[in-house]
């Protein structure tokens, strides 16, 4: 996932196209003038409209408070919009500090590159058993299930193949491995060689290498979301570079008591008024970045609340060599970048399903649109936004409030909020 920060869409300059909302299995064709994969960045940008608070209390929205840090090879940002208590610095600071500590703690378990992490220990154990934290084991079991569901198309033991390409430049400049190097590494890609007994993990193939890059961020986002809810946060966005866990609503507060009387949209501003509870709020506007666009250009907007949203893209990490572009979504069968016809997949699921959305977005990108559509049919509660190499956008699953933005339209992204130091 690309490293981005939460950004907000100014209400006075936001523009969408009327009557262009996609419904299930509808498509829209876009001509993309730029070469495939060049300057591609199909991550999510939080485009949060600046809108006045509505509701029975008619209070002014508190200024969002946020903090960020560099974890999981990404800029991880958490923005608070509402809490049970009044949203103020004295409330936000300890909450955000603890949330950042949670990210760091799980990174120490799940990172492949962080020396001393559980995954690092397993990969360097030479086949010896490794006692792991129970949370590490939980992630491994979940990841193995996805490997099995796809018959190994999604395989977390592909770490050795990933190392050969070195997209992140850990050991130098990325390069195209030789066919012989890939062939040797592929012999050790087999998720069935992971043995788990209790909290003890053993690689039955000592040369296998686990890489949880396609699920770890989602898992950690869930844990942070669970913590924020436990602290009374009712409106927040957890952004791990394209992995989003969205809590509640942007403007207003969701009722803490379900036994409230709804009066409807009294003011005609799209917000339900309530009596006996706290006013409900407006949803978040999420910009889906245009794969071949310039800067912050977006291809469309997704309106959502209380959900998990994850984008995987061939454009997150890539390099050029010998006149060709190579991206980081690798085939577990060939070791080369997969050519599925898709450049970006966004999966939208219920709240607290970030790890599933994370895995599903990668799986869909590996499978291609037709096979991915068949795969996702078994999970009707998840929506998917596909963008293919020709710029065609297709949505499947639940009716998504997705609107296409005019080709070349500038979203005029701005930033709002106060950083909590």
Largest beta sheet: strand ordering: 3-21-20-19-16-11-10-6-5-24
Number of helices: 8
| Cα gyration radius (Å) | 22 Å
Unreliable segments (pLDDT under 50, ≥5 consecutive)? 1-58, 253-263, 265-279, 410-415
End-to-end CA span: 25 Å
**Main sheet: strands, sense, barrel:** 10 strands, mixed
Overall SS class: alpha+beta
The counted number of beta strands is 24
Mean pLDDT: 80
How is this structure best described in words?
This protein has 421 residues and is an alpha+beta fold. The protein is built from eight helices and 24 strands. It has helices spanning 89-110, 118-123, 134-149, 159-165, 179-186, 216-230, 354-367, 369-376; strands at 8-9, 21-22, 27-28, 44-46, 65-71, 74-83, 130-131, 194-197, 200-203, 233-240, 243-248, 261-264, 273-275, 284-289, 298-304, 307-313, 318-321, 324-327, 342-350, 383-388, 393-396, 402-404, 413-414, 418-419. A hairpin with a 2-residue loop joins β8 (194-197) and β9. Residues 1-58, 253-263, 265-279 and 410-415 have low confidence and may be disordered.
